[in-house]
Structures are given as structure tokens and as C-alpha cells.
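Let us practice reading a record.
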Amino acid sequence: LSCTAPAAAQQRPLVTEDPESIGSGLVLVEAGFDYQRDQHFPVSGLTGHLRSVPRFGVSIGVSSIAEVQIDNVSYDALSITGRAQAPLSHLLRVSSDRTSSWSDTVVGAKTRLLSEGGVRPGIALRFATKLPNAGNEEGIGLDTMDFYNSLLIGKTVRSLRVVGNVGLGILSDPTRGDRQNDVLTYGISFARAFAEGAEIVGEVNGRANTRPGTPPPGTDSSGYVRFGARFTRGLVRVDAALVAGLTAHDAGLGVTTGLTWVFRALELP
């Protein structure tokens, strides 16, 4: 059993980015559902159980080595279990025990620099920008724009694929327009095929604050571990995983499930 390049590029339920692109002229569409318990929002002071759907994303293969991505198109609904004083809690327009908002869409691109071969891993670069779709009045968003760049490395050995990411995130301070926080982003994942079209997958993915002292609110260290499985038949893949936060700022236990479909839509020269 082995992972082909298009299959490896289908990442759900993982978020660690694979260096392989989906392929020239191919389009990858994914959608899913996330549920996180005890999600804390330090800028608004809200805590609750968060549901996100449809978790829509699309990747377009513009060449054999590059793709354009639009991710995290979703609607978030929070069942509020607690409130606390926070930097922007005075801006809240939430009078009930529920609030909702569109999530922050992420637009990015990935380019492969080195193909995998022999003992050599595949290497790629990815750049992405998080847009401020979610407003802070609903208590879920930050109304900030963030930028990320990452080095992606991946290697397949027999039925095991291992992927690693390391990079820099430039996160805006949601309380001040003249300040930012630079964080180290990281991720390591594995996918182990155990039957035809079936894999066990897992990862640790997050960011580490690099600023001395107290970071701007909403830019603290954060990390999640995911463990699950995915099943592929043809160009369609179904996935499910458990998700758990690693820091006091992260959500508790959660689940994610989704569907990925790859099809040819473009004829490129």
C-alpha cells in the first residue's frame, strides 16, 4: 500500500499542509462539520461549545507544482456557557446564550520546490492570509488580518507518510492597530495505510508565542492534536477524527468529520 500524490494532498481531517499539490487542472473540494467543547475566546471573554459547518474549502491546481487555496468558509455557532471580562467584551452585541458568525476565510497558495524521490523528501512553500470576516461584536472573531508562511516537508516510506510544517505567523493585535505578534507555526502529521483505501491519521499542529512577556490577546500559544481515520474510494474521501486542545487557551475535546472530492475541471497548457 502506498500514498499517491493526489491522495496525499487531500489532508482532511488534518490541517498540517502536505507539500504535494493536487495536480495540474484538478480541483479539490472539501466540506465538513466540527464540534468543540469549552472553546474560550480571550478577546471577548466568551466560553462555550462551538459548532462549525460546512467547513468548505477548495484548492485549484494551476500547474503540476502549484495550487491556489480558499479554506475555512464556514458558519460558526457558539452555545455560551460562560462570560468574563476581557479586552473587547464591551463591544459584544450578544444578549442571549447563543451567538453566531461567519468564520475567517483563509486564502493561500502552495508551490512545490523539490519533488520527492529516493531518500529525498518533497519540499514546498505555502503563503496564506486570514481575512477578517468574523466580527468581534459576535464574540467569535477578532476583526484582524493575519499572514502565514510555511516550509512544508513530506516523505512516504512504504505505507507510512510523514509530513512536517514550520513557519512564521504575523498576527495582528485585535486591541491596537499599531502592534502585532510574530509566532512560530508548526505541525507534524502521519498517515498510515492499513487496508485498501483506508488510513489511520494523526497530527500535532499549532503555534508558539515568541514574544517576551504577555502577548497581545488572541495571539497566545495554541495547539491541537488530532487522531482519526479516512477512507477513499475513487476520487472521494470520507474522514473523521477526535480533536483535543493542548493549552489552557484551547478548546477541550471535539470531533471533526468531512468529505473530500477531487475532479478534473481545467485543461492547462
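A brief commentary: Residues 5-264 form a domain with the Porin fold (CATH 2.40.160.40).
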